[in-house]
Design a protein that fits this description.
There is one protein chain. The chain has a domain at 2-109. 54% of the residues lie in helices and 5% in strands. It has a two-stranded antiparallel ribbon with strand order 1-2. The mean pLDDT is 82. It has helices spanning 2-18, 25-33, 38-91, 135-143, and strands spanning 95-98, 101-104. The protein has 164 residues and is mainly alpha-helical. α1 (2-18) runs antiparallel to α2 and α1 packs parallel to α3 (38-91).
Length: 164
């Protein structure tokens, strides 16, 4: 049993290494040679899971911050453009050549303003929702004995639950 656990531990650590986890061959051999059983290798994998989840959460937080930053930058862009247009307009200029670039005042295209959405005819509405399959509903129907064309249930492999 210990030999089988050592083989599984070695395989698990090797898999972690292929996933980019900092586990070198020497660490794998030391782990197995020091009679570390599968529990030690699984513990290392659990630590890696926690790190991966933390990295994903940090990425989500960074994305949210970057979206806010983008919105601020776009709003700043609009304010600067409006201020330049105001300055040129107050001087009666339609064009100004500068070392950084040429600014020209041009007529802006008409902008649609919706005053009453409920009054807009249906032919002007577009659907943005992407259809998706209700897998939970399909699973419940199949488990209840109902036949769903194009669908079947499969036996999935066991999974793990980790509590820390």
């Amino acid at each position: 049993m210990l030999e089988q656990q050592a083989a599984e531990a070695r395989a698990l650590l090797a898999d972690l290494a292929t996933l980019g986890v900092d586990v070198d061959e020497e660490t794998v051999e030391l782990t197995v040679a020091s009679e570390t059983d599968l529990a030690g290798a699984v513990a290392a994998a659990i630590v890696e899971l926690a790190g991966a989840k933390a990295a994903a959460e940090a990425t989500d937080a960074l994305i949210a911050k970057l979206v806010l930053r983008r919105e601020r930058q776009l709003a700043r862009d609009e304010r600067i453009r409006a201020r330049i247009a105001q300055a040129l307009g107050s001087l009666g200029l339609r064009r100004l050549v500068t070392p950084a670039g040429t600014v020209s005042v041009v007529a802006a295209p008409a902008r649609v303003i919706i005053t009453d959405e409920a009054a807009v005819p249906l032919n002007w509405w577009r659907q943005r929702v992407t259809p998706y399959l209700d897998k939970a509903g399909i699973r419940a129907a199949l488990q209840g004995g109902q036949e769903v064309s194009g669908c079947t249930l499969s036996n999935r492999a066991d999974t793990i639950r980790i509590r820390t």
